[in-house]
Design goal:
The structure is a single chain. The chain has helices at 12-24, 35-44, 61-70, 86-94, 109-123, 125-128, 157-168, 176-184, 192-207; strands at 4-8, 28-32, 49-53, 79-83, 101-104, 131-134, 137-140, 145-148, 151-153, 173-174, 215-218, 222-225. It has 230 residues and is an alpha/beta fold. The chain has 2 domains: 4-127, Rossmann fold; 130-225, Arc Repressor Mutant, subunit A (Orthogonal Bundle), CATH 1.10.10. A 5-stranded parallel beta sheet has the order 2-1-3-4-5, with helices on both faces. Strand 11 and strand 12 (222-225) form a beta hairpin. The relative contact order is 0.10. Bound molecules: calcium ion (CA).
Length: 230
């Protein structure tokens, strides 16, 4: 599970604290320090959820929110507004600015996680689902199990995470660098070639139970996961 969260917060300490906690929880995190940067970053890559501070330099959180809602890609992206004071809350509750939820600072991290999960579950249930099925392949994140053609497949931890990532984004082409970021993590230095090695192992393991290789090599681009059902 690696939902991508965009944190829009100009207070360094809070942004770092949020990033640390969300990453520890298994989320992928990016930080924007003002409203304009938030719009640029959200356009570059659509987040699964946005945490938006109310008071921001350049463009306020409210205005950034409004503009995000006007774009097709972020029209329905869950947005949680973070506010500094209770009186902002009054404005928030009475305003139609497009956020889905709000929290007043200081808030507790577990509370924020709970709200985040609730919104993600509603917006993108597959991101939080433990069991995903694509074609004849089934992956169970909680039990750490993979079945293909109703038979169990034994995978190493890296192949497991690779397959999980593919199955959550069927049909999408990932470059080796994107797979490294998503599966190995951004802070780990691994050569792009390593991806090919693990893709090879994953293919070999699945081949025993699945007739058609679900991993497609996309020339000079990367890999994609495709089954008849997806
Ligand atoms: Ca602020």
């Amino acid at each position: 599970m690696q939902p991508y969260i965009l944190i829009v917060e100009d207070e360094d300490a809070l942004a770092t604290l949020l990033e640390y906690n969300f990453e520890k929880e298994g989320y992928e995190v990016a930080i924007a320090i003002d409203g304009e940067e938030a719009l640029v970053m959200a356009a570059e890559r659509t987040p699964d959820l946005i945490l938006m501070d109310w008071m921001l330099p350049k463009l306020s959180g409210v205005e950034a929110c409004r503009r995000l809602r006007r774009r097709k890609e972020t029209q329905a992206t869950p947005i949680i507004m973070l506010t500094a004071r209770a009186d902002e809350t009054d404005k928030i509750t009475g305003l139609d600015y497009g956020a889905d939820d709000y929290l007043v600072k200081p808030f507790s991290i577990p509370e924020l996680f709970a709200r985040t999960r609730a919104l993600l579950r509603r917006a993108k249930p597959s991101l939080l689902e433990d069991v995903i099925r694509q074609g004849s392949i089934e992956i169970d994140n909680k039990a750490f199990r993979v079945k293909a053609g109703e038979k169990e497949v034994h995978l190493g931890p890296t192949e497991f995470r690779l397959l999980d990532h593919f199955m959550r984004h069927p049909g999408r082409v990932f470059s080796r660098e994107q797979l490294l970021d998503a599966v190995w993590g951004r802070d780990v230095y691994v050569e792009a070639r390593t991806v090919d090695v693990h893709i090879g192992r994953l293919r070999k393991a699945l081949k025993k139970n699945v007739e058609i290789d679900p991993i497609r090599t996309v020339r000079s681009a990367g890999y994609a996961f495709e089954t008849a059902a997806s």
